[in-house]
Structure prediction request, 197 residues.
Amino acid sequence: MEIGKGVRKQRNDKRRHVQPTVSIELKDAVYRLSYIMDVPVKDVIERICIDGLASRSVMEVLGLSFRRDARFRNTLFLGDITRPSVQRFKAAGPTERVSVRFTAEDFENVRLLGYSLDCTPSRATAILLETALTHSDFITPFCAEYIRRKLDPQRISELQKVIRYLNSNNPHNEKISWALILEYARDGLDAFIDRWK
Prediction:
């Protein structure tokens, strides 16, 4: 056999393409985050999924649907084969596909999540994305990280003082978070004033 013929080299950093089907509302939320953060949609989805897999609170929620035992980090989640399969669950309303590319290592983690949930990696990605975005213990620090990258330390300090003031003087016992601040920034000052009237 001649050198260079018949054997095709693969890149070390080859990425795996996944196209999960999600509700249009979820897709819109991801596109909004992409716009706010000024980061490509694929990168936002990848970051949410990777951080979601590393989040204990997100994995605890997902663990309630595991049909097979799984170990993530130092936690063993017990599966129950009698649980209904999430493969057939469909999002309410119209759906569309989104696209993401994972590194080989991250794809393996998504594939293992799919194995535990007894579904395809594509479906596991959709479930992970939805769970992470709707879980406040995850999305608040995720948005806060973005704010910290975009704002200088002095402005972050001032914003933290405002948040502390609002939380300590809130007559409705509601907590203001980084994610809520982002929402107000998008909706404008009028929405902020109306909320606290």
Remarks:
- Strands lie at 15-18, 21-23, 70-72, 75-77, 95-97, 100-103.
